[in-house]
Amino acid sequence: MTAVLEISGLRKTYRGRKGVRNALDGFDMVVEAGQVHGFLGPNGSGKTTTLRTLLGLIKPNEGRMSILGREVPKHLPEVAREVGAIVESPQFFGNFTAETTLSLLADAGGVNRNRVYSVLDLVGLRDRSKERVKTYSLGMKQRLAVASALLKEPKLLILDEPANGLDPGGIREMRTLMRDLSAAGMTVLLSSHILGEIQLICDSVTIISAGKRVTSGSVAEVLARHKSGAVKVRLEPGVDMMGAAQILRAAGAAVTLDTDHFTVGNASNPAQITKLLAQQEIYVTELTPVAADLEDVFLELTGTAPVEGQNRQVDETAMSAAGKGGWGQ
Ligand SMILES: Nc1ncnc2c1ncn2[C@@H]1O[C@H](COP(=O)(O)OP(=O)(O)OP(=O)(O)O)[C@@H](O)[C@H]1O
C-alpha cells in the first residue's frame, strides 16, 4: 500500500505563563491510500495541533511530514490542491443558498462550476441546494462544509470532528457520506471522539495520548491486539452455576456470575475451564471469547482522564500482543 500521509517525530511545544507544554511529543502517523483512517485521542491530546501543523497553520519544533509523497510544509503550495480539509467549522452566509455558496467558492478556487452539482450529489444536498443555508440543520451545514472541501477533487480529505454536535440521524448521514467517499477512492483522515462511529466507519486508526502515538493499525489488528482475555461460559441447564464458579475461583479464575452464564476474566487457557469442570462432572455447553471494542482499547491506552503523567506512553504498534499472562496457562 502507498502512504498518502506520513508523520514522524512531530514535536510542538507551546510556551505560556505556566511554562512549556508539549502538545506533540514525538508523534508518528501513517495513513495508507484509500483508507478511512480514524484519529482518536482524549481532549487535549494533540489531534487539532497535528492537523493544523500538517496544513501549515502551525510551525512544529521538530519532525517530518509528507502528504502524497511530498514533504510539507516545504511543498504545501503544490499539494494543497489535492488536500481538502475542515479543521475549524467554516462559517457560511445564512442568506445564501448552498448552490450560490459553492458556486462562489468554485469561482474563487478556479474550479469549473459543473463540479458544484457533483459535490451536492455526493453529500446528498442536491434537492435542498436552492434553499438558504440558515434553514439547514447542523448536519446539513456539516455536509455543505464537506462539499466545499470536495470542490477541488482532493485525493486526501481531512476532517476534524465532523460528527461534533450532530444528532444520531446526522451522524448516520455523515457515516454514509464517509463510506461513499471511500468507495469513490478518496483517502479520509477523520478525528473523532465517537468511538463506536470510528469502529463502524474506519479501516484503520491511530490513537494519540499526551502528544504521542499509543497504537495504530487496521481496526481489526488493534482490536486483536487487545483481546479482552475474557471468555463467556454457559453450562448445561439446571447445573449449579455458583458451585461451578467456586471450583474455578479455587483454581485462581476471576469469575463474574450473570443470570444464565458466567464470565472468566483472566482465561488465558480456556481448555482449563472445561477440564476442571468436567472433572466434577459439570459440562460446558458454550465457551466464547469476549471481544474488546475500540472503546475498551481507547480507555486502556489513554486512561479515562487525559491527565498528564497518567496516560500510557508506550507506542504498542510495533509491540507483540503476546505475554499478557493470565489464569490457566
Ligand atoms: N495556542 C495554544 N497555546 C497554548 N497551548 C495550546 C494551544 N493550542 C493547544 N494547546 C495545548 O496543546 C495541547 C493539545 O491541544 P489540541 O487542541 O491539539 O488537542 P486535541 O486533541 O485537539 O483536543 P480536543 O479533542 O479537545 O480538541 C493541549 O494541552 C492544549 O491545551
From TrEMBL:
GO molecular function, one term: ATP hydrolysis activity
Record keyword ATP-binding present: yes
Matching InterPro entries: AAA+_ATPase, ABC_transporter-like_ATP-bd, ABC_transporter-like_CS, P-loop_NTPase
Keyword annotations from UniProtKB, A to Z: ATP-binding, Nucleotide-binding, Transport
Cross-referenced PROSITE patterns: ABC_TRANSPORTER_1, ABC_TRANSPORTER_2
Region (Disordered): 309-329
One Pfam family this sequence matches: ABC_tran
Keyword Transport carried by entry: yes
Domain ABC transporter, chain residue ranges per copy: 5-235
Homology family: Belongs to the ABC transporter superfamily.
PANTHER family recorded: ABC TRANSPORTER, ATP-BINDING PROTEIN
Name this protein carries in UniProt: ATP-binding cassette domain-containing protein
Organism this protein belongs to: Actinoplanes aureus
